[in-house]
Amino acid sequence: MIEEGNGCPPGEGAQDGPVRKVFVRTPSLKDVPTHFCSGCGHGIVHRMIAEVVDELGIRERVVGVSPVGCAVLGYDYWDFDVSEAAHGRTPAVATGMKRARPDLIVFTYQGDGDLAAIGTAELIHTANRGENITIIFVNNAVYGMTGGQMAPTTLDGQVTKTTPEGRMPQECGTPLKVPEMIAPFPGVKYLARTALNNPKNIMIAKRSIEKAFRCQIDDVGFSLVEVLSPCPTYWRVPPLEALKWIEEKMIPCFPLGEIKSP
Amino acid sequence: MNRKVLMCGNEAMSEAAVRAGCRFYFGYPITPQNEVPAYMAMRMPQVGGTFIQAESEIAAINMVFGAAAVGARAMTSSSSPGISLKQEGISYLCGCELPAVIANVVRGGPGLGNIGPSQSDYFQATRGGGHGDYRTMALAPSSVQELADFTFLAFGLAEKYRNPVLILSDGILGQMMEPVVLPDPIETNLPRKDWVLTGAKNRPPRVIKSLYLDVTVLEKQNFKLREKYRRMEREDIRFEEISMDDAEVVLVAYGSVARICRSAVRQLREAGHRVGLFRPITVWPFPYEALARFADKARFFLALEMSMGQMVEDVKLAVAGRTPVRFYGRTGGCVITVEEVVRQIEMLKEKTQ
Ligand SMILES: Cc1ncc(C[n+]2csc(CCOP(=O)(O)OP(=O)(O)O)c2C)c(N)n1
Ligand code: SF4
Known about the structure:
The complex is a heterodimer. Chain A is α/β, with parallel strands linked by helices. Chain A has two domains: 1-31, no CATH class; 36-260, Rossmann fold. Chain A has helices at residues 42-55, 74-77, 90-100, 112-116, 120-128, 169-172, 178-182, 199-217, 232-235, 239-253; strands at 62-66, 81-84, 105-111, 134-139, 142-143, 149-150, 188-195, 222-228, 257-260. In chain A, the strands form two sheets. A seven-stranded mixed sheet of chain A has the order 2-1-3-4-8-7-9, sandwiched between helices. Chain A has a two-stranded antiparallel sheet with strand order 5-6. In chain A, strand 1, helix 2 and strand 2 (81-84) form a beta-alpha-beta unit. Chain A is globular and about 50 Å long. Chain B is of the alpha/beta class. Chain B folds into two domains: 4-235, Rossmann fold (3-Layer(aba) Sandwich); 239-351, Rossmann fold, CATH 3.40.50. A seven-stranded mixed sheet of chain B has the order 3-2-4-5-7-6-13, sandwiched between helices. A five-stranded mixed sheet of chain B has the order 10-12-11-14-15, with helices on both faces. A two-stranded antiparallel sheet of chain B has the order 1-8. In chain B, helix 12 links the parallel strand 14 (300-305) and strand 15. Chain B starts with a strand and ends with a helix. In chain B, 53% of the residues are buried. Classes of the chains: A alpha/beta, B alpha/beta. Chain A binds chain B through residues 59-63, 65, 72-73, 75, 78-86, 89, 92-101, 104, 121-122, 124-125, 129, and chain B through 23-24, 26, 50, 52, 54-56, 58-60, 62-72, 74, 88-89, 92, 96, 197-202, 205-211. Strand 2 of chain A pairs parallel with strand 9 (207-208) of chain B. Bound molecules: thiamine diphosphate and iron/sulfur cluster (SF4). Iron/sulfur cluster is lined by residues 36-37, 40, 42, 70, 140, 144, 231-234 of chain A.
């Protein structure tokens, strides 16, 4: 049984009797209907962040920066302070926040267009300065919000609105591997790539997000977690098939694991 | 009492910002404003502040956005091409109602132009170079002293309205050395603001945003912003009048050109011409009503700018066709001289005899 919205911390629900509570909404996640498409990964990542924030007890000092993309409305779901940013400028906004208030825990939440196309300069230099912030990078291999165009992480041959014949490397380059790109910078301390294709990988993703936040809390330095996330709508597949697509197509191109850890 | 010190305009502006409690400066090198980042790189660590040389003007203005969102007094500066890059950020600051101070040490344009002084960014400063229905107050100093005073003032105005304020300087003012009395430093422990992101402790979460998907809600928000801009027009228009009481010829100039015109007025008065100078200090909001008072008294107006004619459009709006409005401009980094102003007046007076 799934029971939502009573705000009990995990483990304190009605345990006796035939009904056992297996899911409790964490306080940092608002009890509201979702606007995401069915089978979208954003909602899962939102929940994992909220849970990690509560488990680490940082809700009262966390500030999120939401991107321009399907996840712009992060503040409709998170019950903590959030700011928008211009498309891709997200890490620069987070830099200003963290420098002005180092006691805050500052994270950005960015799609592949926001982080790896229009915001590449901000990403690289924020990482290279070793800003003590956390980036949660949702890679769904397309631009969701604008209707399914090519992203920098679109796979070779993948059909999108702007690659009707499939992405051709000789014209469009190859899928950008963000953690590998910034791994050499000394200021970058924690990097992981995770996926939402099965419960085990979702658990790993959540632990990686927790590690990234811990890295910031302990003042170690820049952290980023990439999450391979389904966009059934613009992959034009049913939600279950999208999970298979992550496993069969995305993971071979974007290998999972910790790329760097302190 | 503060002593007079000799400083260049860019440095006086920087020190005034520090004294106004600004502890966060984010910038990118461009001539003729390079003294600002250099001064801030030296000064910020001394006062426990932060200087970052950003990777671009775009990043710099967004760092300002972040610092402002968590309640800090923050500033960036640049010169024309860099200010073009900041326009997106300025639009977002206005949309999200965040205070900030942005200085433009204007140089010759368009394009890369040159590093000579210019006033050709007037349209951008007063009409807004970014997208959407927004306004930014723009202060136009005409001396090193005013660069310091107006920068100090700008931080207060930005917070009064929760809106960015522009300082419209130029290559002459920025580079010029003059004695200046610097403002007394203020407390940096600024009053807590009720919209700042500080972590949702003992209060509901706060959101800073400019996205309003419901069209009627965005329209309402834009009406709310307009009311704020109207309040600026009611409460914070600034201008100066020099020898205007009996003027039959009205010079209109701002910034460094106003200095040149001030000398020209003196010279012309000595030669018996009844010439006055009207100097807008806030170029937005523009002092339309104050200038319109002279429309029926003067024989003609002469707008002078280091541009191909931008402020002259505001002069015409103020005068509303009641009196002829002439224009004289030099551009591309060329400077108007006192002799040129005097010659213009003598010529125009003859023509309108
Ligand atoms: C300056 C600017 N350019 C373009 C856009 C339009 N736009 C909105 S979201 C987006 C891309 C979103 O893709 P992604 O970052 O991958 O996020 P997703 O929607 O897939 O989660 C674009 C191009 C914009 N809002 N601002
Ligand atoms: S378009 Fe894709 S990324 Fe956007 S909400 Fe729908 S499934 Fe999610």
